[in-house]
Amino acid sequence: VYSLYTEKEGLQLGLVGWVKNTYSGTVVGQVQGPADMVEEMKVWLSKEGSPSSRITRASFTNQRSIDKLELSGFKTRF
């Protein structure tokens, strides 16, 4: 369910990407958009999350600049 809140937050920030809950209770995903909005999303993921989430650690990897968006929309994957 965490992923639905993440999807909503991503859309509100004007980002594109995807998010998925894993069987181990973590969340994985990919986010693209303006750097300042991506940073805002990272803060939200690290400190707030969904109402029922318990965030113990947030890890962001494979960060890079891109010339144009490679994804469209913000989706929850199952």
Structural commentary:
The chain is α+β, with helices and mostly antiparallel strands and 78 residues long. The protein has one domain: Alpha-Beta Plaits (2-Layer Sandwich). Helix content is 31%, strand content 19%. It contains two helices and three strands; from the N terminus they run αββαβ. The protein has a three-stranded mixed β-sheet, with helices on one face. β1 and β2 form a beta hairpin. The termini are close together.
Summary of the model, kept short:
The chain has 78 residues and is an alpha+beta fold. Helix content is 31%, strand content 19%. The protein has a single domain (1-60), classed as 2-Layer Sandwich (Alpha-Beta Plaits).
Defining key terms:
alpha+beta, 3-stranded mixed β-sheet, 78 residues, single chain, Alpha-Beta Plaits, globular, 19% strand, 2 helices
What is the total number of structural domains?
A: 1
Query: Which range best describes the helical content: under 10%, 10-25%, 25-40%, 40-55%, 55-70% or over 70%?
Result: 25-40%
Largest sheet: 3 strands, mixed
Structural class: alpha+beta
Architecture in CATH?
2-Layer Sandwich
Mean pLDDT: 91
Distance between the termini: 11 Å
The fold-level CATH name is Alpha-Beta Plaits
Beta-strand share of residues: 15-25%
List the uncertain runs.
none
SSE pattern = HEEHE
**Principal-axes shape call:** globular
Which CATH top level class fits? Alpha Beta
Quantity of strands, as a count: 3
